[in-house]
Design brief:
This protein has helices spanning 12-23, 48-56, 60-66, 93-97, 106-120, 165-169, 244-250, 256-263, 292-295, 304-321, 326-354, 366-373, 376-387, and strands spanning 4-8, 27-31, 43-46, 68-69, 73-77, 83-85, 102-105, 125-126, 131-137, 140-145, 150-153, 155-158, 177-189, 201-205, 209-216, 221-229, 240-241, 269-275, 287-289. By secondary structure, the protein is of the alpha/beta class. It has one domain: FAD/NAD(P)-binding domain, CATH 3.50.50. Helix 1 packs parallel to helix 5.
């Protein structure tokens, strides 16, 4: 009989782990508090390290139907639109890293993972199953649900996000700290987007704000994310509605293409950016953590979801390699992942804090700053160790 793994959380990380484990012959049960298994949110960058991991799970055909291949990645000056191209983030990705750079809607990726899991085990996901407690002993581990049920297996994986109950029950609570940044996000029908922006993954930089925008859903929409400075923020929700007028005020003086996109995105959503301290010890005997539950990061490198995907693939390989010794397998997983994930978190925060140079406010200095920062050699050097990682090959 296959060993049963309980996964708390049916998001991208939890479903990736579930799929990877099912493909290795493990039995999996995913407990999800929502009443419907779906993802909210907007777009995400799927760098080649993430694409390679998903392709290795047999998802290439499904991804190619819904993703947009990044063929043109440009860094832009906020008010003039002057551009610097990054080949390895576009058409050159596959040649350099062995996998394409993709642009996806989170809900599309989530649906692909969900369908792949349920195709193997139709009853793999328990909905309306909010985790409130945790237990483990020599024979196994389990989660206690709000309605009194206990779901047990050989191990529990906490893939339940930044507000992880599993992490808290392990005594590893973290206190979020507001970073001084807030985000605007929205989706724009592609026909309402300036033509120059329709096939480009653009990153726009100023001295006080940034914008990332790129096509998703087969090129039918453009995903828009803007980051601006704020003195304070109280809510942890990322579904708070704002107004077009508020958003336009935050990007006053920006290039007309940015203004046009904001005017055409419908209702913009806003949320504050909080820093959650990473957990250094993910594993306690038969319980471990995955993704944002142990290493949440800002979106500045586009690696948050990808780190959870890598975790899921490596977790399954580590448990398989341990030949039935669950405790040893979870320790193998942690040993293989903690240093890389921690360094990606640290790099993401350094990038997030350092991207709004005062030089960008000075027309005499702005172009020179951008040209120096976004040379192909410096960008490739920075990203090679991130993009070149192969979750299906790393030693466990």
């Amino acid at each position: 009989m296959s060993q049963s793994i309980i996964i708390a959380g049916g998001g991208i990380g939890g479903l990736t782990a579930a799929l990877a484990l099912l493909r290795k012959g493990f039995d999996v049960t995913v407990v999800e508090q929502a009443s419907e298994l779906k993802e909210i949110g907007a777009g995400l960058h799927m760098g080649p390290n993430g694409t390679a991991a998903l392709f290795g799970l047999g998802l290439k055909d499904a991804l190619m139907k819904q993703a947009v291949l990044s063929v043109k990645r440009e860094m832009r000056l906020w008010n003039t639109g002057e551009a610097w191209s990054l080949a390895a983030h576009g058409a050159g990705s596959e040649e350099r890293y062995g996998a394409p750079y993709m642009l996806l809607h989170r809900a599309d990726l989530h649906g692909i993972l969900r369908d792949a899991v349920l195709a193997i085990k139709p009853d793999a996901v328990l909905l309306n199953s909010k985790v409130t407690g945790l237990e483990q002993d020599e024979s196994g581990a389990g989660v206690l649900l709000e309605d009194g049920r206990i779901v047990r297996g050989a191990a529990v994986v906490g893939a339940d996000g930044v507000h992880s109950v599993v992490r808290d029950r392990l005594g590893k609570s973290v206190t979020p700290q507001f970073t001084g940044n807030m985000f605007w996000r929205g989706m724009i029908p592609i026909e309402l987007v300036p033509e120059r922006e329709r096939d480009s993954a653009g990153g726009w930089f100023s001295h006080r704000a940034t914008v990332t925008c790129y096509p998703v859903r087969g090129g039918k929409f453009l995903n828009f994310v803007g980051t601006v400075k704020r003195d304070g923020w109280s809510t942890l929700s990322w579904t708070e509605q704002g107004t077009t007028e508020e958003c336009l005020t935050d990007f006053e003086g920006w290039h007309p293409n940015i203004i046009q996109m904001i005017e055409n995105m419908g209702t913009p959503y806003k949320w504050g950016q909080f820093q959650f301290e990473s957990v250094r010890e993910w594993t306690d005997r038969r319980v471990t953590l995955l993704g944002d539950a142990c290493h949440a990061m800002p979106p500045s490198l586009g690696q948050g979801a990808i780190m959870a995907i890598e975790d899921g693939v490596v977790l399954a390989r580590a448990l398989e390699a341990s030949k039935g010794d669950i405790i040893a397998g979870l320790q193998r997983y942690q040993a293989a992942r903690v240093e890389r994930a921690t360094e990606v978190v640290n790099c993401s925060w350094r990038e997030s804090r350092g991207r709004n140079s005062a030089d960008l406010a000075d027309p005499a200095k702005a172009s020179a700053y951008m040209a120096a920062r976004f040379t192909s050699s410096s960008v490739n050097t920075f990203y090679d160790w991130i993009f070149g990682y192969k979750a299906h090959e790393v030693n466990v």
